[in-house]
Amino acid sequence: MFCEYQAMDFLSPFRNNITFSTLACTFVLLFLLYKLLLANHKPHGHNQNPAPELPGALPIIGHLHLLMGAKKPAHFIFGSMADKHGPIFRIRLGNQQTLVISSSEIAKECFTTNDKALATRPKSLASQILGFNYTILAVAPYGAFLREIRKILSQEMLSSSRIESLRPTRESHMRKSIKRTFASNYCVDQEYKNKGALTVEMKQWFGRLIMNLTISLIFGEQGDEEEESKVQESIRRMMELFAEPVVGDFFPWLRWLDIGGHEKAMKQTAMEMDSFAQRSIEEHRRKRNNPNFNGKDEDFMDIVLSLFDGASKPSLPNGYDIDVVIKSTCLSVLIGAAETSIVTLTWALCLILNNYSVLERIQDELNTHVGKQRCIEESDLNQLIYLQAVIKETLRLYPPAPLLVPHEAMEDCTVNGYNIQKGTRILVNIAKIHRDPMVWAEPDKFKPDRYLTSHKDIDVRGNNFELIPFSSGRRICPGISLGLQTMQLTLASLFHSFDTRRLSNEPIDMTESSGVTNVKATPLQALLIPRLASNLYG
């Protein structure tokens, strides 16, 4: 699912390891007396009507102590603060003024009236190093470069016609994955052994499928499994590092210490990703220079190369290296597409396996519109209305980026009647918005039927601010259609091919954990009982 955010609780690793202990010692030994005078928050006397600041700020660290050591993810903590202090309040995270928003009405004002004023991103160490010097779309500052790259993505790489042209690749990968699953080790449980049942670790299943598919769409078939594994590991590490809060981001005067070794790890991972992307550029250029190249089976890298190596190159501001832009554009799609899709599919499966009546309705829909005599095709997806509702409800309950990626005010503006100063960071707590009891009846319950009745007109494309898992406005995900298409095809293929069951009678624990994706780190074992004949997959 390509989108301009990473799946993250961006504060949780910072709260739950020893970083703050190390940081406290550093304050005491090196900087306390000096920075106590200089690092207190800037006075706001000239701001006549600031948003209310949460009480309890401390010198230097601001409100970070309210998040330190907490067992719950940050969006839960901010949600509790909103219950007590209202849907808009200001906090200080180190030296950063941050506005936290927890209502759909205020979010709408941010993404419509103030869309341009709040359209840029804060700078960070990860954005600089892993973001190829702020050229990866999700972290790029607002300006001419961002607008040009978004135009390329929307018109050339992620247009409806381009997505349709890549349909055979998606269907092929899906069928290969199902075929590979049929060939896996069978379940040893005697009750299911005669049915050809399989025990499968589903997080790995989703991960391998989505990573392989996404890499193929962007860079072409890799062929070398060892190389593919290395790339997948680098991507996983890249996502983790993007989510790691770095001490130097909160306290720039401590960056030189590289507490936690994050900067070193980022440089190593960025070098690995750069090396892979550079090899891909060179291979694609050799292929395109071959006289026998006919332009068929183009992947995203081919599309970008045809634009930047062509006679009429995109108009980029001065100072941008073309190869860096090509690499970062392709990696923008890869980063956004892989992890968020895997996370959403994992949550969806957990919810479905805890609600077998939902699974039965999905299978009834598949029986009606597809049957059991052929494999599912993407052309079938438009008829699977209930499955679409299941994915919507999953995105409502468990958005892959509960706080979105932070926005930053490029200029002074007014939000909900409060004066917001240039440089203020904006966190939109969509996890709280998505569970607003004034909008959603029984907001904590998994009820896909609501999108067939009371909420049938609500979509996830940024038009209804009660449900904005892909954000909205200028920074909305340009690849919503591709993401939804891939997730629908994955779940439809899984449930069409296999009757899927929990291994235990106990419901799956749906508690969110702190970390990159908020999905619990425990394995997700499932029992897959074939519904179709394996020979349908070749």
What is the global morphology?
globular
Distance between the termini: 28 Å
The CATH superfamily is: Cytochrome P450
Order of helices and strands: HHHEEHHHHHHEHHHHHHHHEEEEHHEE
- For this structure, the CATH topology is Cytochrome p450
Q: How many individual β-strands?
A: 9
Describe this structure as you would to a colleague.
The chain is an alpha+beta fold. It has one domain (12-537): Cytochrome p450 (Orthogonal Bundle). The chain has 19 helices and nine strands. It has helices spanning 12-16, 19-38, 74-85, 104-111, 125-129, 144-157, 160-165, 167-182, 190-193, 202-219, 225-243, 247-250, 262-289, 300-308, 322-353, 356-369, 385-397, 430-433, 480-497; strands at residues 88-93, 96-101, 198-201, 407-408, 413-415, 418-420, 425-428, 498-502, 525-530. Strand 1 (88-93) and strand 2 (96-101) form a beta hairpin. Helix 8 packs antiparallel against helix 10 (202-219), helix 14 (300-308) runs antiparallel to helix 15 (322-353) and helix 16 packs antiparallel against helix 17 (385-397). The two termini are 28 Å apart. 45% of the residues are buried.
